[in-house]
Fold each of these.
Amino acid sequence: MSKINQKFFTLNNGNKIPAVGIIGTGSTWFKTVENDSTFSNELVEQLSQALKLPGIVHIDAAEIYKTYPEVGKAIKESTKPRNEIWITDKYSTALKISDTPVDGLNTALEKLNVEYVDLLLLHSPWIDQAAYGFGVVKAWKYLEQLYKEGKAKNIGVSNFGVEDLKLLLSSPEVEIKPQVNQIEYNPFLQEQTPGIYQYCQEQHILVEAYHPLGPLVLKNKAKENDEFVERNKEFYCLITELAKKYQKTESQILLEWTYEMNVLPVTTSSKFQRIKDAQYLFDPEFALSKEEVAKIRDLGSQNEPHRTYWKKEYTK
Ligand SMILES: NC(=O)C1=CN([C@@H]2O[C@H](COP(=O)(O)OP(=O)(O)OC[C@H]3O[C@@H](n4cnc5c(N)ncnc54)[C@H](OP(=O)(O)O)[C@@H]3O)[C@@H](O)[C@H]2O)C=CC1
């Protein structure tokens, strides 16, 4: 029987964040339209079951995922106290949904039926001044306002590169440093943009990893990725070997590796067992050794980096 041994990262404002986000409501659950006919009972069921698990359940949401109704319903039906649910939300930037982050969050709070979110992010640095009427610094100022009002307990960014962060940090208007940068991160993409991992570590900006299980998803689609999997054979053998050694799933090995790299993994699954495995990740008797962590890092980076999300924006 797995025991819950919840771990946390400490953010640069001193607040603690549960060290694995178990239910991302984007990717698998992403919708382009939010109405009664697209309402996903499956997602509500998954969230409801997750909210029965012990410990603080960390949910990752965003304006653009169109999943507030499902998250709101599951939270409403849950008996878990609000302080045992961590909710991350993101203001949609590349595609304008609400006029400002203040409007966006007010709508989200209403749909989620909560008084605050635990973390609010700017979804990306790509804010078109002409469409939004403001740029990234002003967008950040809105987040600072929501932080001061207590509607967002922590604030951060997503998909920001070093230059994007430097722009914020060097702006005389900016008062609060982002607490988090959520980026695509896994052994096959250790730098979403050049130097971002190291820069965030130095600046005490917590890196959150979305797509932490990228290598397993790629292997699963082996037909399309045969050659890729073959080139990374040694890497895949190591993950299988470690899963056997520690009696853990391959997903748990990658999530634990992410944590050991001082990065918070944000995962998701359509299978409840995998959600449960992620919540039970921090078994007190399980930790990869320093050598194993380094070996995954090195084998993962020996081939060309592999990007899954935001390809168009990064190739511009
Ligand atoms: N800020 C941003 O721009 C972005 C944020 N995100 C956030 O991150 C969350 C997670 O992203 P996602 O890319 O889905 O993360 P993951 O890397 O956790 O991938 C989840 C996928 O992995 C599959 N999987 C799990 N275990 C295995 C296994 N052993 N073998 C093969 N496949 C496996 C799952 O399939 P199954 O359902 O069968 O278990 C699921 O489809 C999103 O939901 C969203 O909240 C995501 C993208 C961009």
Amino acid sequence: MTKVLIKDMCETLRLYFIMGSNNCTMDPEYVLEQAIKGGISFFQFREKGTDALTGNEKVIFAKRLQSICQKYSIPFIVNDDVELAISLNADGVHIGQGDESADEVRRKIGDKILGVSAHTVEEVEKAIANGADYVGIGPIYSTTTKEDAKSPQGTTIINEVRKKGIEIPIVGIGGITAENALPVMESGGNGISVISAISRANDPAESARELKEAIDC
Ligand SMILES: Cc1ncc(COP(=O)(O)OP(=O)(O)O)c(N)n1
Ligand SMILES: Cc1nc(C(=O)O)sc1CCOP(=O)(O)O
Ligand SMILES: [Mg+2]
């Protein structure tokens, strides 16, 4: 799937689920399929941190999740690992400020989707100049999922970006639940990005439905 096939990036980004094997208390393939049934619109494969799979095990796991996404036409984005994304013909890549530079990644992946993490207006402007299709801004709220997360900043940066008239699609990330999701959209975000709210839920499909309802009203 290329950018051309994604009619409306903002709409597609609305409920963005991110997951790796160590984020789940249940079978990750079951969690992903349930999350899709509950209404997620975008998926990022993020296999990193304690006990994360590596090497061939990581590749096999990525392919399993990719095939579930393909079955339901959900874009499959790879976090950090540009070479893996290219070898799997993934729909795109998400990189942060400490990863490979965005302009270099854009050169490598052609017109596939490029997401970039940003924590300031300047980083958003640089991401746009380097060819980002969307930015992930966070942490909005406090999170324990990402070990090296920065301090929570609420929706301040999203507000600042929109006040400057910058129109790039934005997803908020970090500590987002159905209870606190709405301010991300009200401040000008196009979607919410979650890990634990779905991956650690007793019922991932129901959790995805609740998140969707929270931002659809
Ligand atoms: C949608 C989205 N936004 C932000 C991030 C964080 O990326 P990064 O800062 O590179 O941190 P890691 O996820 O690689 O630990 C993201 N992955 N997705
Ligand atoms: C992967 C990630 N990136 C963040 C950032 O601020 O850039 S916060 C984060 C973790 C999000 O997990 P949860 O939804 O469980 O809080
Ligand atoms: Mg990264």
Amino acid sequence: MERGSNVYVVEGGERDRGRKMERGGDVYDSPQGVEIRGRYDHEFARILSREALEFVADLEREFRPRVKYAMACRKEAQARYDGGELPGFEPGSKWVRQGGWVCAPVPPAVADRRVEITGPVERKMIINALNSGAKVFMADFEDSLSPTWDNLMKGQVNLKDAVDGSINFVDSDRKREYKLNKENIAMLFVRPRGWHLPEAHIVIDGQPTTGCLVDFGLYFYHNYAAFRSLRGAGFGPFFYLPKMEHSREAAIWNAVFERAEDAARIPRGSIRATVLIETLPAVFQMDEILYELRDHSVGLNCGRWDYIFSYVKTFRAHPDRLLPDRVQVGMAQHFMKSYSDLLIHTCHKRGVHAMGGMAAQIPIKNDPAGNQAALDLVHKDKLREVRAGHDGTWVAHPGLVQVAIEVFNSHMANQPNQIQSSKRLDAANLTDEDLIQRPRGSRSLEGLRLNTRVGIQYIAAWLNGTGSVPLYNLMEDAATAEISRAQVWQWMKHGAVLDGDGVKGVRMGLELFGRVLDEEMIRIEREVGIEAFRKGIYRVAGKMFAQQCTSPVLHEFLTLDAYKHIVQLHPSSRI
Ligand SMILES: CC(=O)SCCNC(=O)CCNC(=O)[C@H](O)C(C)(C)COP(=O)(O)OP(=O)(O)OC[C@H]1O[C@@H](n2cnc3c(N)ncnc32)[C@H](O)[C@@H]1OP(=O)(O)O
Ligand SMILES: O=CC(=O)O
Ligand SMILES: [Mg+2]
């Protein structure tokens, strides 16, 4: 990275006297005010160079106050929803919604994104995903990653090797070697964590760092040059941005991008990002978010799972908006269909991609009929998306790339996307009410049991360092698990009647939940086996799940609570 840009003003030689953190003889060479509290590793030291840490520290020092303000605004908005207000379009930004502006032209390297595979930044999976035949691989520090120090730092090492093309992996048990294909490699996008998550292992001026600024900063610093020459045809790096609730948060990202571009002395608009619309407040801010990022945008994506979670969270004080069983809240619900239609209309009006989302089905081993049924459901979901006008979609597994590609190929033929051909003018008049309409369906004891079983097993995996898992033949990650625990909390809080099984209804309450919890723990023990259960992590997870579901106030994020359990500070202490 170029020195002499405004990011690298050296203040009176202070930085040269920055502290070296002792780790049993090994050191991270960190600048003044930066303390690395994660374990030392020679590989990690490649990433945590003094210059890279200076870049992260400069981002943190500049943007920390804005991030804090944005988080306070989230709380203030939620207090209004708790007081009975409904989310809606803001009158003050009508001029943005009605303006005739468009985003910067889409770079040729990412014009065609018809199928995107996602997955955590794990070494073998990165290679498999880049080789999968998908157009894009979204490498994930977010919903599918448990942000342990090792996962994060190894993830950065892996991405650096992926960008320069040297990544390989040897599975000695299976005598298998993994390396990148010679051609037809997916384009790399990286998803940093959301604004709310801290990084406790990197302390700057006495405070934990903003997690996403660590993810973004380290990745950008080490890869922007190689990415632009080897991967992005002069553009990039490319990002996915999660869980925003308001355009002021997009404005922060835009400023971060500008800061990084200036530091690297690369042209404005080099960095490009797709924003996930996955919170209820953000659906009323889609134009505004694109406007803030108009020099850096490559579209929006329907993050359907977090979106459902956000519906529960936003309406947590509204007993008239209880969700039916999780399995019934799909894209056919009016509020979900309206959201995806409006997203397509908005993106295409502004000249950028409208990406579809993730079907939760994954291939099922040793059950051909079950596997075919799962593939059929994925096919149906992708067909709905391409017909609606989406420009591409997400898959969770390499075994689903082909199904999705065939659907998009047959409908888009040789066009790289549908930005010009599917304007969805019919969606222009969708109203606030369409976007928040109560989901239809029923609530059942079986729904409660499934939420409990899935929630506990997911938390157990996450605490053990795995952020996405197959459970009952579906992909589960932080977003899907959030639905499970928030839904149980909501039913409990409002004393929902569970009568969807066709039997006499039971009212949700502490006693019922306690009984279900005990019974489901027994079932989990039976399913995972006594050995695995004895290790104790399921009990910890069960306790955490129970606390979250019975807390008087809904916890903001499952992962914020759980994070305290995976932080390992050196010298050792707990946060
Ligand atoms: C709500 C959201 O945010 S969605 C986006 C975030 N979520 C995700 O990205 C989930 C990604 N998917 C996954 O993590 C995995 O597919 C899981 C956990 C659901 C299932 O994983 P597994 O049980 O390991 O699947 P399975 O055993 O069938 O894997 C077969 C092979 O495919 C690979 N594979 C599976 N999923 C992926 C993936 N997403 N990317 C790359 N490779 C993958 C496995 O590594 C394995 O490779 P190998 O044969 O070389 O050993
Ligand atoms: O991130 C995607 C989602 O569905 O949540
Ligand atoms: Mg999400």
